[in-house]
From TrEMBL, chain A:
Keyword Signal: no
Domain ChsH2 rubredoxin-like zinc ribbon, chain residue ranges per copy: 377-400
Classification lineage: Bacteria, Pseudomonadati, Pseudomonadota, Alphaproteobacteria, Rhodospirillales
Alphabetized UniProt keyword annotations: Acyltransferase, Transferase
Gene3D superfamilies per the UniProt record, alphabetical: 3.40.47.10
InterPro entries: ACP_syn_III_C, ChsH2_C, ChsH2_Znr, NA-bd_OB-fold, Thiolase-like
Coiled coil: none
Pfam family, one: zf-ChsH2
Domain of life: Bacteria
Domain Beta-ketoacyl-[acyl-carrier-protein] synthase III C-terminal: 224-303
Domain ChsH2 C-terminal OB-fold: 412-469
Name by which UniProt lists this protein: 3-hydroxy-3-methylglutaryl CoA synthase
UniProtKB/TrEMBL annotation, chain B:
A Pfam match: Thiolase_C_1
SUPFAM superfamilies: Thiolase-like
Taxonomic source organism: Azospirillum oleiclasticum
Name the record gives this protein: Acetyl-CoA acetyltransferase
CDD domains associated with the record: SCP-x_thiolase (cd00829)
Domain Thiolase N-terminal stretches: 23-227
Thiolase C-terminal domain span: 258-392
Amino acid sequence: MASDTTPPPVGITGCGAWIPRRRIARKTIAGAHAWFNPALSGGARGRRAQAGWDEDSVTMAVAAVRGALGGADPARVSALWLASTTLPFADRQNATLVAEACGVPGPVRTLDLAGSLRAGTGALLAGLLDGGLPAGATAVVAAADTRRAKPASADELAFGHAAAAVTLGREGVIARLLAWRSESEDLVDHYRAAGSDHDYRWEERWARDEGVVRQAPPVVRVLLESAGVAAAEVARVIVPAASAGDAQRIAKACGLAPDRVVDTLADGCGHAGAAHPLLLLARCLEDAEPGERILVTGFGQGFDALLFEVTDAIRDRRPAATISEALAGGWEDDNYLRFLAFEGNVELETGIRAEADLKTAHSVAYRSHAAVTGLHAGRCTACGTVQFPPERVCVNRDCGAIDRMEPYRLADRPARVVSFTRDALAYHPDPPVEYGMVEFEGGGRLLAEFTEWERVPLAVGAEARLVFRIKDQDRIRGFRRYFWKAVPATRGE
Amino acid sequence: MATGIKDKVAIIGMGCSRFGERWGDSAEDLMVEAFTEALADAGVSKTDIGAAWLGTSYEEIGVGKSAIPLATALRLPNIPVTRVENLCASGSEAVRGAAYAVAAGACDIALAMGVEKLKDTGYGGLPVRTRGSFNDLWMPSMSAPGLFAQLASAYAAKHRADPRDLKRAMAHVSVKSHRNGALNEKAHLRRAVTEEQVLAAPLVAEPLGVFDCCGVSDGAACAIVTTPEIAASLGKSMVVTIKAMQIAASDGAEMSHDTWDGTTVANTRIAAARAFREAGVRDPAAEVGAIEVHDCFSITELVTMEDLGFSTEGRAIRDVLDGRYDHDGAVPCQIDGGLKCFGHPIGASGIRMLYELYLQLQGRAGKRQLPGLRLGLTHNLGGAPVSNVASVNIIGRLE
């Protein structure tokens, strides 16, 4: 047990989130399994989110962090925590990759937190309690999960893929931590063994009634008492349960009014694992009013409870309504087989073109990581020409200066389409692959793949933005490469 | 000031294998086939050849690295043999090596061989290979048709062309080449097709359909060059000489600088200007009687007509549809069927283009013969519009 009621000097200063645009109706999933497990159709309501083939917990965290930083200078980020139970690398720091992709320069403290669905609230607590954040600096806590489920399992319906991030700082705090409490206990309601793709679950009713419904009340009661806040004074209660019914039952057990429990985003997203508490918190901050108290809980081998109070600063620093917009948007895929393929649960014949060896030369990757991970072009200080990939000699024929390049990040600049094609021949996990030249406002161009599932027609001159995505999966060596892709504006945010 | 090699090098012998899916033949077999024809045509003996160049691109799935495969296949008696590689322009590069050696006086008679054995890969189209350890980290998964197809999107936008007109003009390009190729016994694809067939074909890379793409073929082509003086001493009456031989390679501007709008192949324009200057051609459309261009895709041929200056900017769609480049048009193009139908064994294609013009200039093109040709142009492109090497050669009768 650990707790504190002294408000730390560090608070939440902003937030961002990413819900993949791919959605599948739960009845589509249940319908495919009706022959095998007809009971699934009972809970098959609404739609869940699924990561595109080129998204994982790293790319989604990058999207959430970029959203949380907004236009802020990434150079101010001094620490970045990444929480997930589905990190693509067990030994290669994922948080570092996220930081570099977000344009955060070298002197940054990074750390992955994993091992439990409680990793999200754990990371948030670690960031808030961290004493090392200097004035003027920003810390980032990101959480993302892309949990896979066995076909015809309840998890397949319950899970959703999403990421959320908050920025922390000493200035411009929009939500401050009033109190927190954390307890741990090795209760195994479900687990996923290292190296395994899927969870194993014990009986749901036991997990609920003997697990969180029993664990939560004493923690919440002590937390509220220590903060001097009455249960009725808590405006919003975040309970990261898969269903609204479970969330309300848990709240009720804690003496909290069930109508204060915030929407669990079951429709449109689904349970986003370690990211879920942060996702719901980010959703609350989209429309929370100053003075509102928000209780955030997280569970998994224990129980975390964090009580926040929204400050006046939120009036001027209101986070973008990313989650509301994402829930209203999206693109529903009615193809369950494609859902399975993207989950890695069915192996398709990919043809001879997929046999190409995707071995990565890591020495080359390291030499070029600023260009490849951070999308830094070169800008010639002699003539101003922006050029990608960066070379030592300026591409401008009227210049040709040698060694006058300075790094120039393209990732955050608006672009427009110069040329494009839809290619049915080249191998791609979601054919046809679309690619073309895009040109950036302020100079520079990139021969880029286009992404996002919907096949909105491309057009020369269309606006585009850049996103960090999986580029290749080296199945022989288990390595994953990332690069930037263009999303035409017509494919929505 | 260099004046170029106009009329300093004569082509005295050429050979070309039948192109196509040569399942039963190796690259070595194909080289021997082309060489045997060229040697007989030249009327010289193997021991007269002082140096040789081999152009091949996919050595990893074909003959292997170095020039040794050529030297060994032909049993060349330990002469200097060099392998060159410049993607699909490798054949032209081999001829350039041989021609420059003769022009420089380094040897009397030189051989250029281009070969590619593509049908040993299991691929329907071109096999996938690395673009280099850095480029593989960022370049999209792309195919040749997809890289060229982008020309169509940018071209239509720039010239405000109705995409349906562009698609029809592209179809006309292919229909014309199929009609020409049907008359060519050595061609890979020898069946005429209709515009309706072309337009209805499945898409490979939008807007390119199957019929907008050239054949993927096995084949070899070969040239034997010498000085005009030696050609005359061998009793050659209808001597064909090289008027210009130019290659331009990308400096990265297309990929990395905003000066390229994606509607042209910039190097074609540069190489063509240099070639016309070297050859002393002032009015290409009036002086050049036939052209063999790098029609890897119909859209490539279409924009090449503007890049070479045979159509004015934005006019190619109209000119193509009007039949300007048909067999009986003002500037006959791909008389032999082109890459589209003769086929495209990468390393051999540049030499195959010269082979057709060489036959035409000597009045030996049979059913495809054009009347009174004096000057012909080849355009051989390696790479893709965004990064490439363009070769423009002009050959003609020695006046």
